[in-house]
Amino acid sequence: MNVGNRIKKRRTELGLSVEDVAKMLNKNRATIYRYESNDIENLPLSILEPLSIILQTTPAFLMGWEINDQNLGSLADKEEFQLLIGEFSAKNDKLKKRILKGLLKLKDKESWELVAKIIEKLAQAEENSTKE
Description:
Elements: H1 3-13, H2 18-25, H3 29-36, H4 45-54, H5 59-63, H6 75-90, H7 94-104, H8 109-131
């Protein structure tokens, strides 16, 4: 997912129109459309910071440098996540470490949702096999 896709996705998730974002940034609609279509790929920091505030995210997420905190849930969930990661990676299992490294590279919500569905299916299969 590129910068423009992340901008558009966040804007639509928040129910904002292009016009709403344009007004808040003091830009015209065409400029916002150009950001979303990647016609302007290198967003200046003077735009990136206020845009990330408007879209309730971070400049790093918009640029694709980090996983959005929304994908990890609340603070308690994040702390639990960090503990699980530490426990998971402490075990000397190359497959688990490879899986963990792959998960940490996921950047978009759709990828995380796909992983969640796979994990749910595996958990259901495990539950069904223990019932038999």
